[in-house]
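Appendix B: complex inputs.
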Amino acid sequence: MVVYLDNAATTWPKPASVYQSMRDCMENFGANPGRSGHSMAVRAERMIDQTRELLAKFFNISDPSRLVFTLNATEAINLGIKGLLKPGDHVITGSMEHNSVIRPLTLLSDHGVEVTKITVSQADGISPDDVRNAIKKNTKLIVLNHGSNVTGTLNPIGEIGRIAHESEVYFMVDCAQTAGMFSVDVQEMNIDLLAFPGHKGLFGPQGIGGLYIGEGINLVPLKEGGTGGNSEAYYQPEQLPSRYESGTPNTPGIAGLSAGLKFIMNEGIEKIRSKEEGLVDQLLSGLHQIPHIILYGPQTHKNRAAVISFNINNADPSDVSVVMEQIFNIAARSGLHCAPDAHKTIGTFKNGTVRVSLSYFNSPDDVNKCLEAVSAISRELAR
Amino acid sequence: MVVYLDNAATTWPKPASVYQSMRDCMENFGANPGRSGHSMAVRAERMIDQTRELLAKFFNISDPSRLVFTLNATEAINLGIKGLLKPGDHVITGSMEHNSVIRPLTLLSDHGVEVTKITVSQADGISPDDVRNAIKKNTKLIVLNHGSNVTGTLNPIGEIGRIAHESEVYFMVDCAQTAGMFSVDVQEMNIDLLAFPGHKGLFGPQGIGGLYIGEGINLVPLKEGGTGGNSEAYYQPEQLPSRYESGTPNTPGIAGLSAGLKFIMNEGIEKIRSKEEGLVDQLLSGLHQIPHIILYGPQTHKNRAAVISFNINNADPSDVSVVMEQIFNIAARSGLHCAPDAHKTIGTFKNGTVRVSLSYFNSPDDVNKCLEAVSAISRELAR
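Resulting structure:
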């Protein structure tokens, strides 16, 4: 039986209710939501509306219609960044962002958008003072992850949100590594644009994500097309969520996400974080005991995402992860994890790190097996 | 038990193997494809590659990597149209297109792209001569559906493809209403861009679609982000399919689509079309016998998609579909079906039509029930 420690890429397994609700959706109301008036279509639409409401409650969004579904967090980030920024605008970001943020910004910087990349502390995240000092007259947006997908480092989202709010700059957060483990409150944190994947900490399937779009923000859509309502108009409708949801949505994916959210709300986010913190504590404490381990990011289990990056001296991380799997049956990930800037920040470009990422469904036994494997590999390499 | 006749919106039910393969994917190899080296991730990636190869075989595409997965056909159409056309380009389309084509073109026409909309015959589709005559020096693209989602009218795709090829104009086809029932051969039909949904005639779930991008065509991507490989680059990679598939894909959706394709290949497309043609023949013959029925589009079952639009004299189509469902438990669709131009073409703007659309899983008994319902409603309205 595989020990799955690649939950930062996608959580596995999901709660059984996720598989069941997807199948129930497809078998019992697998019609096209919002397109027809018959009861299967209406039931599909109602399920989607209810999921939107659940997510709104989860992120403290007052108007659920401002939450739009996308294929994944990457699409949500593209919609937010490219839908908002125009030539002449200035955007501030950090040095530990994922390519889903960096690649759209690189493209825009070739088309007249000014980009400031602030060096982030791998232990403490971005410095609020650095952000404040970087704001200029033409600053339109600050975009940051809540937690790094390489080191689990948290950015001080609440403080940055206050600074953005005071400076009348929009604030966009990518909560791919924190949603479901940490509370993300768009009102308290002054978040104007929140991008999330459904298939990580929210326990939905791959193929679904979303973007919250704050009041008064009018993004240029990435796509136009059929929206169910307003069929007579040649232009994309103005009202949300239709404006940003052209074509048939991933209805079974939304049903799965809904079950994932209900699972989290039932268990309670505190209980989930507490368990994950315990596992991270066990893992970090163990890794600290193993010789030749270089551990990146925050060195303790408090105030961090459940994503741990390490190396064994000069060993190629991909060799380590291969041995972890082939000898010890542990699924981890090595390399750059689609975040080259993060590795430049922590000094692991270009080989990257071995990344171990935990979920609520991992056990102390999984962590023990991981520690035994890393310990054995470290001993073997030292011979 | 509902009689489901809304298959042009989404087919239902799916083959049982579709539900099973989605669950198998999520339970047994629910990792992130292309992101990690461990065996669950590799298995997910291999399944996606194999599905790409199946689709390539299905559409006679020589290089599977030129087939990219999208959220739905609408995204595929947006990628093709907006990724190709630049200000000053001329594009030719028909008067019976879906909003997924018309809305992007309307937007582009506001930004310097010239659009010619050719009036289509509801019986025979677009006239090849009209298309030939519309081609100008700056014509870059002809974009047409294979079959109308309102009337089932087929466009003469083969002939238009020849004209496009001779004139060195790109040819884009939306096969949303024909894939799985008619053979679509990109080489024989000279199709440069082929957009398809997974959840209609291909029997996959909602949430998956795709675009074939012909050799030598370099589209501007809609999105940039993580692509698994080439993590070190700040720019979107050049190679396909990664260039157009940023972020985590809908892996369970692709697994479902794969099962749908295998089902079709097993049954044989001829057998599927033959059964659907039989049902359409039965339905049309029956409708022709009912007084007060106005039938749009092709009047016989040959050479058409299994989508039938009608009205009962001056009755509001939405009233008719409500009675069909509430009294007779038949799920049909009424209104504009996201294709206002088609209704202007057939004279049913703005109330639209009642649309009945069939699938391989319908039976002659379903058609009889539909005919009984329409007959009873027609009698009732005539009193």
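The first helix of chain B runs from residue 16 to 28.
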